[in-house]
Design brief:
The protein has 5 helices and 9 strands. It is an alpha+beta fold and 234 residues long. The longest helix has 19 residues.
Length: 234
């Protein structure tokens, strides 16, 4: 918790330091291949920028990721369990970056990622196999298991913007990014009720056997952005 407070304070100090410079606000939409389709916004001064993007993981990226997970050697039982969770995900990224080069068109910085994956129809047998805990026999067959997984990650991003149009307010951004998940939290409900004991075991297994070892996210990004000067610019 203290580390997060220090990160937040550092970001606020950067913002305060840059308020005297010429500032811009921008909106953007694009994709990180093979990770998400997203929309976002950014604040930039001459040298630094802060951005937030929110997006969705869906077809065909979901299938590509599952193929990669299988190719990396993840145990088949986990592949089968995660197949449904990766059908849809809500992805969020907060970035802080430094601008450099000619016209400050290059940038590099840090990403903090918060990704949520969910599945409405998780197979009870897979949960039993992974956790080693039996679900009461009377509930199997008509069981409804809902699984959600929250993933926390940190990474780096490197990019270049190609401005065009009047006052160069339009831009095409190309990016490379790489992140590593540092924590995960599963949320399992069986027939609408929390299953804390099973979920605790499942959360440990997913982290130890999957996300800690294979939880890397990398991609190529392309997006369109439009920016305008903020009120009060010198």
């Amino acid at each position: 918790m203290m580390k997060m407070k220090h990160v937040f304070l550092s970001i606020m100090l950067l913002v305060s330091f840059a308020l005297s410079a010429r500032n811009y606000f921008s909106i953007n939409a694009g994709t990180d291949i093979p990770y998400q389709y997203y929309a976002g916004m950014a604040w930039e001064s001459e040298h630094i920028g802060l951005s937030y993007r929110t997006g969705v993981l869906t077809f065909p990226y979901s299938d590509i990721i599952m193929n990669l997970i299988g190719a990396l050697g993840v145990d088949e039982v986990y592949v089968n369990l995660l197949d449904n969770t990766y059908k849809f995900g809500w992805m969020n990224t907060l970035s802080a970056y430094y601008k450099f080069g000619g016209e400050k068109s290059w940038y590099a910085g840090l990403d903090f990622r918060l990704d949520y994956l969910s599945a409405a129809d998780t197979t009870a047998g897979l949960v039993e196999t992974i956790t080693g805990i039996s679900i009461p026999e009377g509930r199997i067959g008509s069981i409804t298991a809902n699984l959600g997984v929250m993933l926390y990650g940190i990474g780096i991003r490197f990019g270049h913007v190609f401005p065009f149009g009047k006052d160069k307010r339009h831009g095409i951004r190309l990016e490379l990014s790489f992140s590593k998940y540092f924590a995960s939290q599963s949320s399992l409900k069986i027939n609408g009720y929390s299953a804390d004991r099973i979920n605790e075991r499942l959360n440990t297994r997913l982290w130890d056997d999957v996300f800690q070892k294979y939880g890397f996210v990398g991609g190529i990004g392309i997006s369109y952005s439009y920016r305008w000067p903020m009120k009060g610019n010198p």
